[in-house]
Design a protein that fits this description.
heterodimer; A: 222 residues; mainly alpha; Arp2/3 complex 21 kDa subunit ARPC3; two-stranded antiparallel ribbon; 7 helices; 3% strand; globular; B: 182 residues; flat
Chain lengths: 222, 182
């Protein structure tokens, strides 16, 4: 879902950056409040976790595979602000330390994959928890977070032909409109990447639940 | 201070390059970046081309095909978007190879510290992940079933999460013993 540099017009990414900065400041403050004095070591650990989870290739029924981003896992376990902050920090590190992604698209990637995915997953999990089977709730939360994030990306990309055109009226940033981006991006996330996130969320939460239940005497960090 | 100035310059340059709407000035920008990069031009260019090819080429090629079948000129679009993407990625790679990023974002002490700690942990985790997958591969004799793969993934991802949190407690104690207080 990462968008590289050069596909978003400045009229898109400058307001997105202005919008994401106060959100990140709030997320930073809420995260520090939520996890008290171990903040730095803990946050860096969760950031490293969201980075490493992107390396796991998850097979999806149908013969393909995808990777999760871990937004739902972090949001459900530690709260949506912590999830959003850690994913955003991971994206920032990917863009400016590893040269993957880009600073001009950081804000949109952060808004979608950090904030939208974390909040949707967290609140959906909260809404459904206890009403249906736990593993289904986890899957739906993970899947929905990513699908919602992909919808944001699809809408913003699909608006680019309206926002950036040359003198002849041709698009000069992302070329395809909403009629293409919605089915292509949201569709692929409904069928593949959302499934990968859903499976990862379900597996991790089930594993944590299992070790908490079966090994209550042993010290477990989570 | 110098790193912060370069960071500001990088941001302004990035906005300027992203505003260019034609391939001619983008070619000039690439030439200027090439001159600035000096001996590392080829290695940065190679990496930038790979990153552009991953997404940009795929999108621009498919749109160029659409334009071609509509009998519309497609070269301008193809060159402009790919060159802009290449210039911006080149600029970012040049910036991160020349400037100390931790110093550049040191406008916040907290952010700098968090960044240094996170990157060092990411590097440790990347190594741990490689060791983990190598160990798994060397111990797997027959192809695992899908449910076995899912079981492995669930425990591996949760294991990494557990390991990270345990280590964060150790890191915190180590930081505290060395006089660092949040």
């Amino acid at each position: 879902m990462h968008i590289p540099d050069g596909f978003l017009s400045p009229v898109t990414y400058i307001p997105a950056t202005i919008a994401v900065i106060p959100l990140l400041v709030i997320a930073w403050k809420k995260t520090k409040e939520a996890i008290t004095d171990e903040s730095f070591a803990f946050l860096s650990s969760l950031t490293a976790f969201s980075f490493v989870i992107m390396m796991f290739n998850i097979p999806i029924p149908g013969g393909t595979s995808g990777h999760a981003i871990g937004a739902a896992i972090l949001a459900i376990l530690f709260g949506p602000w912590v999830g959003a902050f850690c994913i955003s920090l991971t994206l920032f590190i990917q863009a400016l330390v590893f040269g993957d992604g880009g600073l001009s698209v950081f804000a949109l990637n952060s808004l979608a994959m950090g904030f939208v995915a974390s909040f949707v997953a967290f609140y959906l999990h909260k809404l459904l928890d206890g009403r249906i089977k736990k593993s289904v709730v986890s899957f739906v939360a993970g899947w929905s977070g990513i699908v919602a994030a992909s919808a944001v990306i699809a809408v913003v990309l699909g608006m680019q032909p309206l926002l950036g055109i040359d003198a002849a009226g041709h698009p000069i940033y992302f070329p395809f409109g909403l009629n293409v981006t919605i089915p292509a991006i949201v569709g692929s996330h409904i069928l593949f990447f959302g499934v990968a996130e859903g499976i990862a969320t379900m597996l991790v939460l089930r594993f944590i639940e299992k070790i908490k239940n079966t090994n209550s005497t042993k010290e477990v960090a989570l | 201070m110098q790193a912060k100035f370069y960071f500001l310059f990088y941001v302004v340059a990035l906005i300027a390059v992203s505003s260019l709407k034609s391939y001619e000035p983008l070619l000039v920008v690439l030439a200027i970046l090439g001159l600035i990069s000096g001996k590392s031009f080829v290695s940065i260019l190679r990496r930038a081309v790979v990153l552009v090819a991953l997404f940009s080429l795929f999108i621009t090629l498919s749109y160029s095909v659409v334009l071609y079948f509509q009998n519309q000129p497609f070269w301008h679009y193809f060159l402009t978007v790919n060159l802009r993407s290449l210039d911006m990625i080149f600029l970012t790679l040049l910036f991160i190879t020349r400037v100390n990023i931790y110093e550049a974002v040191s406008f916040s002490k907290d952010l700098t510290f968090l960044l240094v700690l996170s990157v060092s942990k990411i590097m440790i985790m990347q190594r741990a992940y490689r060791d983990y997958t190598d160990a798994l591969k060397s111990r797997t004799l027959k192809k695992p079933t899908r449910s076995e793969i899912y079981e492995y993934l669930g425990s591996a991802i949760a294991g990494f999460l557990d390991k990270n949190i345990r280590e964060s407690k150790e890191n915190f104690e180590a930081m505290k013993s060395r006089g660092f207080h949040v």
